[in-house]
Amino acid sequence: MLLFFGLFAGSASAQMVGEVSGTLLDQSTRQPLPFANVLLVRLPDSTLVGNTQTADNGTFALPNVPLGRYVVRAVALGYQPARRVVALSLATPAIRLGEWPVVPMVVQLDGVVVQGEKAVLVEDLDKKVINVDKDLNSAGGTAADVLQKVPSVAVDANGQVSLRGNADVTLYLDGKPAPSSLRLDQLPASRLETIEVITNPGARYSAQGTGGIINLVQKKQRPDGWNGEALATVGTRDKYSASLNLSRRVGKFNVFGSVDGLSNRFQGSSALQQTATAEGRTTSLDQAGRTARHQTNKALRLGAEYAWHPEHTLTLTTEFYKNDLRHANDFTTRLTRGTDSTVTLQNQYPETDDLYTLRFAGNYRRTWAAHPGRELTAGAVYILDGGTVTTAQRVLDGPADYPQQARRQVLDVTIHMPSAQLDYVHPLDDKRRWGAGLKTDVMLTPGTAEYGVQPVPGAEYIRQEASSYRYHYRQVIPQAYGTYQQQAGRWDYQAGLRAEFTGLQARVLPTGSTSQRIFNLFPSATVARRLPRHEQRLQLSYSRRLNRPNFLQIVALPIYADARNYVVGNPALRPEYVHVTELGHQVAWKNTTLNTTLFGRFANQAIQSLRTVDTLATRLSGQPDFITRTSYQNLGRTTSYGLELSLTHPLTAWWKLVANGSFYRNQVADYTGSGTRANFTGTAYLLNTFSPTKTLAVQLSGNYRAPLVVPQGRLLAVYGVDVALRQRLFHDRAALTLRVSDLFDTRRQYTRLAAANLTTDLRTKYETRVGYLGFTWFLGTNKPASSIGNQPQGDSGGFGG
């Protein structure tokens, strides 16, 4: 009888199975660790029973495990291996490890102790993540400075970012739509924790942005107690910035906030040569002069996070931005019409921007400990942009018969942008899961454009009724999506479909109105294969996306850059649609990581800006001059395809190299619409990080953007070298950073355009060689960046909608 019961118990134990689950976190930041390996080893013979990878939110589950004693091992690049001993029995067949923090790796290098940490640039197959604190060349800089480090990204002198030659890049702030007034060159790098660049977003992301998505993730400290940092930076020729980031976590509450201030003065120069033919006569313009720009930014951010239960978290944030810009342009202008004598003018083009942004956001997150991977998030955001933009044109000196009156345009802008979204992820088992979401974006922008003339210096501006307008723009975009993911052995599959409806109405009084009603479906799919050696991964992805024209591109509202050039929208403009495909390969061996991506982008109804001579306005001016008009058109098809490479490799114990670049063929429709223009182009970036002592880090970097064709011409090459060093002080409680941007003063913007009856050659040199000295004091558990970063890791930064 005893033998019978013993055999029965043994048989039952062999047939019963259990499960081990948990969530891997970074011990210092409390952020999830995706793509980490979790192994289950049986005791005492160390037989491997099962393995899996953590999901985007750090969760993992090992189901169908026979009862017994095991060691659970977690292995993540750059972190110390972690292990837990578990025992599955009839009484406890399921072990929930909950949150499992792992610590960064500590490496001993010839007497120099280096704390393992995330690299400056993290390369994954579906996105690139820049860890801002690890980039010494961002100290005292802006988000635009940081983005110069990303493969295929270019940022021009106005803060406009383009990816693989495409300027239609969608900006997000903490995973939600960014204020329309947000400029990358106005956001201090000190406020940012990471910047995510997603080149081929899936169905979970908004379909807007044919060039991809850039998500700016702001700092939100999570360790217990007081944490934060204070930073002050001074730059050559009157450049100052300061910031304070603080957080306080006690129990279920986490309160965080930041305050930032920036005041920068920049000098520059530009030269413009244009030749235009109007009314049968040719006029040449030769203009050269100096520019001065004074930019002041103020920002305040407050937030609170309340986790009243491990499965429930509520986050509320409010932000205020104040951006002021004073831009003065003083030029000498020479006009020659036909065989007439040259007219010489002294022009001044002042511009004043007084803008503000209010942003309120709330987010609720619900998880289920009993069902790892199941998650519900709900969020709402309200953004209010407002302010005025004033541009003027004055003739300070010229012939007596040339008009000396000043002209001024004042744009009064108010933009309301509420949005709400709901996302849900439901795992069917440890290999399959589905997700769905709803979102609505609304944009309302009433405003005015007042145009006035000042007859004599010092007099009041007289409103010009025929050139003054009121406008109203309304856009509503309801959206829904569904996704399905499955893991089968070493294969991963993901498919999704997103539906978006666009309804807009634009009115310009007194000229007229336009409206659009467009429904679209956007499929996406990804297939990935994990290869057995060197932690390799191969991934093929596809998505359909669109570029909706913004309201300034649609509203027929003339906006004057100066007396000779204006921009106006096109009410007949329609969205641009694009198909994006990528084939990526990632391999890691020892301390080296190599990413290779083949990509293709194929657009229809491509939106292009065109500059032409406005013959009517030229005739009405009655002067030896000409007026140019810039507007937008849908011009046929554009294509770009090529290769990206990124390599991270430590050459020695004290020298680490990051190199990335792209080479691609860029093809755009000719401005006439009858053909195409194309060239081979690309970008290159090289970052050297040196650790000569245990407390000193040095970074030397250089970037290059090759010439790029546009419908009416080409943009010439841009390149430069930056250097920075950081000395850690007072037992890692402080750091001193010295950097010089554009060390050899080589970054210049050259543009050459040609159209019917118009040629343009524009050369601009902004003040790019600047020295910065910054001091940072770290509070709580915060520490300065160490001298050597670890291997790239996947980051947890995904966002919905």
Automatic annotation (TrEMBL):
Location relative to the cell: Cell outer membrane
Gene3D superfamilies (UniProt xref): Carboxypeptidase-like, regulatory domain, TonB-dependent receptor, beta-barrel domain, TonB-dependent receptor, plug domain
Coiled coil segments of this chain: none
Domain Outer membrane protein beta-barrel stretches: 373-777
Keyword Membrane: yes
Region of interest: Disordered: 273-294
Protein name: TonB-dependent receptor
Bias type Polar residues, positions: 273-286
Keywords in alphabetical order: Cell outer membrane, Membrane, Receptor, Transmembrane, Transmembrane beta strand, Transport
Topology in membrane: Multi-pass membrane protein
Family, as annotated: Belongs to the TonB-dependent receptor family.
Residues in TonB-dependent receptor plug domain copies: 132-213
